[in-house]
Design goal:
single chain, mainly beta, three-stranded antiparallel β-sheet, 1 helix, 3 strands, 28% strand
Length: 43
Amino acid sequence: MNGVVDIACPACRETTNVWKVALGEYRCAACGREFTSEDVLPG
């Protein structure tokens, strides 16, 4: 099964301007924060 998941920036909660820059690494175009998938996983 395939699905699409929106990744929200942990700083500003933006979802539409989050870009994948590497495996498990993302950049938010809205605020400029770079983060990993571990930063957004539920704890």
